[in-house]
Design a protein that fits this description.
mainly alpha; two-stranded antiparallel ribbon; 4% strand
């Protein structure tokens, strides 16, 4: 049997790589150590991507949201962007467009140690990202701390893109003031990167407030996982393939689903599709059966 073309076998990786570049096209910034501050920096990108990265051209929605809150402004624009992306894509952003998602995927593919995706306490830890969203993204910046607290104290993407790329070029005085906070952020990043070798996307599962927001829209998102109940035999092949530890044929709209498509590829009955909830015209599949169009 002929192998599928490269772009079909690695389509998601190609999209992820392209999205990462489009989030950070100013590669010269890594050499000049200057942060772009042009007009595009007022535009929110869909994925988690640090404003302080020398290569970044847009603003992170989580960072922009916090900036508005601690300035005591209603973040109408950011809320509009999040709702628009959420209603349209849901966590498709996590599976296809987020730069930090790509990094986690690549680290997980390294054949190092035994993978431990399913463990006691996993389901409880999934709620931690909602706690972080409420406390570090909303409550602290709004009422207590005049700073984007998630970005300042937790965000590993910010440490990777901003802190580690700019710290070596910082002045001696600035380097001296980095102190405990910088060490803390680097430690968080190191732990998350190490966990990526063992657990599939630990940051997405347990810590990411942006994924928490997009996940809330999964049940109503225009593009999502659709199950053809007539074709599905509940064989469990999709469950075995799901690295987010879901049962796709039962949990197609679960907030934890990142729409990666692994279950679609694995399904022997072609019962799963990435598509819209709109009922499209049915077509005959050649066996007297009908199937809905998917995207």
């Amino acid at each position: 049997m002929d192998k599928q073309p490269f772009y079909k076998r690695h389509g998601r990786r190609i999209i992820q790589a392209a999205s990462t570049f489009l989030h950070n096209p100013l590669l010269s910034g890594f050499f000049t150590h200057r942060i772009y501050q042009g007009k595009l920096k007022s535009v929110c990108v869909p994925g988690l991507n640090c404003y302080s990265c020398p290569a970044a051209v847009g603003a992170c929605p989580i960072g922009s949201f916090q900036q508005s809150l601690y300035a005591h402004k209603v973040p109408y624009y950011v809320l509009g962007v999040l709702i628009l992306i959420g209603v349209t894509l849901g966590r498709v952003v996590c599976g296809f467009l987020c730069p930090f998602g790509l990094l986690q995927d690549l680290l997980y593919k390294i054949p190092f140690f035994k993978k431990i995706n399913r463990f006691k306490g996993d389901k409880v830890l999934r709620y931690l990202k909602y706690v972080i969203l409420a406390v570090f993204v909303i409550i602290l910046p709004l009422f207590f701390v005049d700073a984007p607290t998630f970005c300042k104290y937790i965000c590993p993407q910010g440490t990777l893109q901003g802190g580690l790329t700019l710290a070596p070029s910082a002045s001696t005085m600035l380097n001296l003031t980095l102190g405990f906070l910088f060490t803390w952020k680097v430690a968080i990043l190191a732990v998350i990167l190490l966990l990526c070798l063992l657990i599939y996307r630990p940051f997405c599962k347990y810590l990411c407030p942006l994924g928490a927001i997009y996940g809330l829209f999964n049940p109503i998102a225009l593009i999502g996982l659709r199950v053809d109940k007539q074709r599905c035999t509940e064989c469990g092949a999709c469950t075995g393939a799901c690295k987010m530890c879901l049962t796709p044929y039962k949990q197609a709209n679960n907030p934890e689903c990142i729409r990666c498509g692994d279950c679609i590829k694995t399904c022997p009955h072609k019962a799963l599709k990435l598509g819209t909830p709109i009922k499209n015209k049915r077509r005959n599949d050649g066996d007297g059966k009908e199937e809905k169009d998917g995207i």
